[in-house]
Amino acid sequence: MARSVLVTGGNRGIGLSIARELAAAGDAVAVTYRSGEPPEGLFGVRCDVTSTEDVDTAFSKAEAEHGPVEVVVANAGVTRDTLLPLMKEDDFTGVLDTNLTGAFRVAKRATRGMLRLRRGRVILLSSVVALLGSAGQTNYAASKAGLVGFGRSLARELGSRGITVNVVAPGFVETDMTAALEPAQQEAILRNVPLGRAATPADVARVVKFLASDDAAYITGAVIPVDGGMGMGH
Predict the structure, then answer these.
(1) Burial of residue 152, with CB atoms counted within 10 A of its CB: 0-12 exposed, 13-18 middle, 19 or more buried
(2) CA of residue 11 relative to chain centroid, distance
(3) Alpha helix stretches (DSSP H) within 32-119
(4) Is-contact 225 200, C-beta < 8 A?
(5) Which end of the chain is more exposed for a tag (fewer CB within 10 A), N or C?
């Protein structure tokens, strides 16, 4: 039977790849998007994860369409990169509000139904920079590191109810965001990747699909790197 799945930020890049991977596996997938149009073939709901009201509405619409959400993927995120002495306070708090507090809003709303079902999968999208660090990304790294502590604490809260919580930490991924980098910047990053290439969104999506599957029923509180070895030792 198809499970009801919600992927935030699922209209492009990694989120879209995750949504399509889960849909291809037979799940009924809804995606949220803040701007643009919903992806073809998927149930789309406009939602800004900085709004609790938006998040609640998105879940209500997904539930009306597909039933209680059994798998949630908190993927929506933003960057506002700049060195700390030049960073405006809004650039710091704004990134945390979307990436970390947004995931809190999404997970909190998701667990309401999962606790009734006594089953569920919560998957949080972090980043290699959460533990490795990245100059010019103190705000982004802080938000993504916060997801690790948040996810592991939630895993301890929900484990007895049959709900797993895991964190996926991608490295350098081929997306519109990374394509905007200068070739020299991309080459410098790839020099630190033992596998010598960027990840594709599908590389990340397949790991998410595994964590959402029955095969991962005994995995919770894990941080799974999908970074080609970039963050080894962290």
Answers:
(1) middle
(2) 13
(3) 52-66, 89-96, 102-117
(4) no
(5) N
Q: pLDDT per residue over 64-100, tens digit each?
A: 999 999 999 999 999 999 999 999 999 999 999 999 9
Q: Is the pTM of this model over 0.85?
A: yes
CB atoms within 10 A of CB 117: 14
The single residue of 140, 154, 225, 226 carrying the catalytic annotation is 140
- DSSP letter at 130 equals H
Summarised one tens digit per residue, pLDDT across range 99-157 is 999 999 999 999 999 999 999 999 999 999 999 999 999 999 999 999 999 999 999 99
**Residue 140 among the catalytic residues:** yes
Residue type, 34: R
Backbone angles phi, psi at 123, to 5 degrees: -125, 125
Beta-strand relationship, 69-74 and 120-125: parallel
Instruction: Say how many Å lie between the first and final Cα of the chain, rounded.
Output: 39
The structural domains of the chain, ordered by start, are 4-171+201-225 (3.40.50.720)
